[in-house]
Amino acid sequence: MADPETAATGQARAHPSDEQDFSRKKPRLDDAGKHKKQPSKHKKSRAARKRDLHPEPYSPDDVLHRDIIQIIGKDVVDKALEDGSAKTSPLQFHDEVELEIVGISSGGDGLALAPAPHRPWVVVVPFSLPGEKVRARVYRSGLMHSLADLLEVIRPNAELRDESRVECKYFGSCAGCQYQMVSYETQLGLKRDVVVKAFKNFSDLPQSSLPEIGSTIGSPLQYGYRTKITPHFEAPRQNQRQALDAAEAKPEWLKIGFNKVGTRTTMDIEDCPIATKTIRDALTPMREGIISKIHTYKRGVSLLLRDSLDMSDVAASLDKHVCITDQKATVREQVGGMRFEYQAGSFFQNNNSVLEPLTTYVKDAIFARATTKPTHLVDAYCGAGLFSIMLSPHFDVVTGIELSADSIRFATRNAELNGIPEGKCTFRAGDAADIFATVKSFPAEETVLIIDPPRKGCDENFIRQLVEFKCSTVVYVSCNVHTQARDVGMILKKMEEDGDGKTSPVTQRAETSFTPRSSIFVDKSISPLTANRGGKGQHSRL
Ligand SMILES: C[S@@+](CC[C@H](N)C(=O)[O-])C[C@H]1O[C@@H](n2cnc3c(N)ncnc32)[C@H](O)[C@@H]1O
Questions:
Q1: How many domains does one find in the chain?
Q2: Cβ-based neighbour number of residue 252 at 10 Å
Q3: Is the ipTM of this complex over 0.95?
Q4: pTM for this structure?
Q5: N or C: which end of the chain has fewer CB atoms below 10 A?
Q6: Whose C-alpha lies nearest to ligand 1, atom 12?
Q7: 133 is in which domain, residue-wise?
Q8: Domain with 48 in it: what CATH number?
Q9: DSSP code of 35?
Q10: Gap from CA of 343 to ligand 1 centroid (Å)
Q11: pLDDT digits (tens, 9 = 90+) for 5-21
Q12: Distance 5 CA to ligand 1 centre (A)
């Protein structure tokens, strides 16, 4: 799933960089307790001012902006942009308001209209649900919206909310999960809605061409599924370091964990119930080790905890797991009948329990649609070879490409490890677009292309060559449905421009499945309990 940093890592959700940060009004003190110079509001570049009013396309800000438009209407937003009031919040810092939640954003937060007599303005309230009446306190404002902390659910949506479902003591503060209080059934429906909206808002396709979105296929595990977490902590400041020599217990300022919702502040997290048992068991000793030598750290650290089969015993049962914390170490996982190894610091999907159903789903989708039996498989953005190797029994020739040379080394090794005949699977390191030059001899009618790009999606060079390649089937797996919708729209349009209906590799139907990933055919939305928010420098994913 894409950029492996998902909501489950607890990284903070992205907020519009240009938001009106009321907290700036408070004097800031430096380490020595002196007042820091306040940043001048007049120094924003023209580009920054433009960004203020036009979120970066397909970014989490843009996705939220589309949700806002849906609630208050395009005309109202356009008028506010025109008259210059789109960034002027009618609500002040720390205003407490009672709100009726009317919708839920693609990032999983409740959405309300600012109460009358305020002009149309959206308030975003994490952990609230449609149909609820809540009390919330505003802490920041941005383009046509304010962000607010949930203070109280005055009238819960009894159909959706059941607090007894919540299994994590940090839920409601940690940025990692959004949905623990709702049933998994409901979560799957919410994820489907995100896919529907994404194709409507970001594919640039006419209504009549929008794919039908199937129902979401659930993850076999809803807690204890996450095979990777990356808690982080800050190094002591100079004044804190001096006091440390005497300290034995964890100093109050030291927080080892994930971001607090809506902030870039780290919360101390002692346990994470969405992580596997192996990772949960390893977290306490790891934290204790850090606390005991915190005085030695000169800078903050992002930790890595990865669940691996025990590598010390090749014949060991699949029940013997260890926690890997070294980025360079090798991790081993089992998926169906296949074994995979990869470098701990490189990409691998973070919910092992969905991988067999996911790859089987992709295989079934390919063969159910094929009119001629596919023989050749091209796996673009192949990582350590998950799709290549899982699907290899069903093809004669398989080739994969991937930017990371380390992942390619492991993909080649994984083919050997699983006894795939020599020469059947070949992998090369390089930009995905380079694959097309190497597969010109593949028979178009019998060739399948699987794409599983990072969150930013494919580039135009790749898409242009994909369309020219004219293979029989394209499967687009993605952890970011918004860039996926953009790319699918672009592929369909370019194919139409080419006027070659027969090549049409793109399915008529997007189907939501599993946790977050998506494909042209499949849209998987991976993580239970999380909204699969995404984006740079933030936050979450498979
Ligand atoms: C979402 S992961 C998918 C990996 C693999 N399909 C799997 O399921 O394990 C995306 C992969 O694309 C790789 N990548 C990123 N940019 C790329 C590019 N321009 N060309 C090829 N691979 C790229 C990343 O290193 C990462 O391994």
A1: 3
A2: 9
A3: yes
A4: 0.87
A5: C
A6: 381
A7: 14-160
A8: 2.40.50.140
A9: B
A10: 14
A11: 333 333 333 333 333 43
A12: 14
